[in-house]
Specification:
447 residues, Rossmann fold, eight-stranded mixed sheet, elongated, EC 1.1.1.336
Length: 447
């Protein structure tokens, strides 16, 4: 009978996972190497913002069902939910997974269930985790330990709901491991729980996000093509998506988060010669921050000592998640430009969680020549035109998310999918100033 669950890693996935198991009645130990996180959780508080999470965690801690520590303890189920970032060469860094497995070895008992939820390259269970457990003396083929891979499939902002209601994939090292691990999830998951082999589950997780990355790359490439041909890409997408079998995603300043921006590289790492489309899609999406920055530079090229307001640093709307955020990449590209002043506003990100200075909305817009919308927060979609007219020196907006809907003759809004007009405007201003300069030179010569 399963009573105790140990969750290794208390980040965006681990903490909500620990919370829902505790709410379901299990005795859950959350483990993290960060003492600050453990201390915060022990007090019934949370270190990440997620809808409904604070209430569930507080109640679970108060009831004694959820505890936290820096090391594991004997349990019936061990769930590994640690991060797997990429190295500088875009290969997977699975050091945290290896360390997590090592940390539970002294506590394992026959019949325990070990589940890896961390996103990993295909073959990691077979090539990395299995040898570690076998070296410790466990015969996995005899199911001494039930080992499985069960990837998370959630979106920030709705994690608690999706952990419970989404379909889950459980890939077992053996058929029995898949079955036993699936029983664990069926106690808390209302969605369907599918049983398969570990490698298929690993690849399914990666392909879910790769599919989205490729689709976004198609939209971003359309933006570049449309600019050259002077076509409105947003209108093209709207019309094309009226087809019953077409669903082009929305373009933007790039792709962020720990899933879509990272997972495709795990496939490329294992099959570089075969994953050509996947690699090209990554290259296209990785080019978008530079594309955005170049157009910001264009829009302020005729202004002396320009001031730019960047609105949003999170990688997605209504979230404080800055992992792999293209908005931060845009900021870093712009701050290297000479003479530019930048103020940044994001209503979701706490200053203590980022080493980039944030200001209020009014201060960000005050005397600004250009406002660049980099995240589609719901607050941005509700902006009043007077906010820009009242605060900005020149009320011009570069909307990289197609989320601003303002109809006012006093504001100029340039959309990422329709930038030819912005280019022509800047060229005309520069030409006009050159003509004015020539006229003034002639007058000086006459005098």
């Amino acid at each position: 009978m399963i009573e105790k669950v140990c969750v290794i890693g208390l980040g965006y996935i681990g903490l909500p996972t620990a919370a829902i198991f505790a709410k379901a009645g299990y005795h859950v130990l959350g483990v993290d190497i960060n003492n600050k996180i453990v201390s915060t959780l022990t007090k019934g508080n949370i270190h990440i913002e997620e809808t409904g999470l604070r209430k569930v965690v507080t109640e679970a801690v108060q009831s004694g069902k959820l505890k936290a520590d820096i090391k594991p303890a004997p349990s019936d189920v061990y769930i590994i939910a640690v991060p797997t970032p990429v190295h500088d060469d875009n290969t997977a860094n699975i050091d945290a997974v290896i360390q997590a497995v090592q940390s539970i070895l002294p506590y394992l008992r026959k019949g325990n269930i070990v589940i890896v939820e961390s996103t990993v390259p295909p073959g990691t269970i077979q090539d990395v985790v299995v040898p570690m457990l076998k070296k410790a003396g466990w015969v996995l083929e005899n199911n001494d330990i039930y080992l499985s891979y069960c990837p998370e499939r959630v979106i920030p902002g709705n994690i608690l709901h999706e952990l419970i209601h989404n379909t889950r994939i459980v890939g077992g090292y053996t058929r029995e491991a898949a079955s036993e691990s699936a029983k664990v999830y069926r106690k808390v998951v209302k969605g369907e729980v599918l049983e398969t082999e570990a490698a298929a589950a690993e690849m399914a997780k990666l392909m879910e996000n790769t599919y989205r990355d490729v689709n976004i790359a198609l939209a971003n490439e359309l933006v570049k093509i449309s600019k050259k041909l002077n076509i409105n890409a947003h209108e093209v997408i709207r019309l094309a998506n009226k087809h019953p079998r077409v669903n082009i995603h929305q373009p933007g300043p790039g792709v962020g988060g720990h899933c879509i921006a990272v997972d495709p590289y795990f496939i490329v790492e294992k099959a570089e010669n075969e994953a050509k489309l996947i690699k090209l899609a990554r290259d296209i999406n990785q080019s978008m921050p530079s594309f955005v920055a170049s157009h910001v530079k264009l829009l302020i090229s005729h202004i002396e000592n320009p001031k730019v307001a960047l609105l949003g640093l999170a990688y997605k709307g209504n979230s404080d998640d800055i992992r792999e955020s293209p908005a931060i990449q845009v900021y870093r590209l712009l701050k290297n430009l000479n003479g530019i002043r930048i103020n940044i506003y994001d209503p979701y990100i706490k200053q203590e969680n980022i080493n980039i200075d944030l200001v209020s909305l009014d201060k960000a817009l005050s005397e600004a020549h250009l406002a660049v919308v980099l995240t589609d927060h719901k607050e941005f979609k509700q902006f009043d035109a007077q906010l820009f007219i009242k605060n900005m020196k020149t009320p011009v907006i570069f909307d990289t998310r197609d989320c601003i809907s303002l109809k006012n003759n006093g504001i100029k809004v340039y959309k990422i999918g329709h930038l030819k007009e912005a280019e022509e405007m800047t060229e005309n201003v520069i030409k006009s100033r050159k003509m004015k300069y020539k006229v003034n030179i002639k007058k000086v010569k006459k005098n």
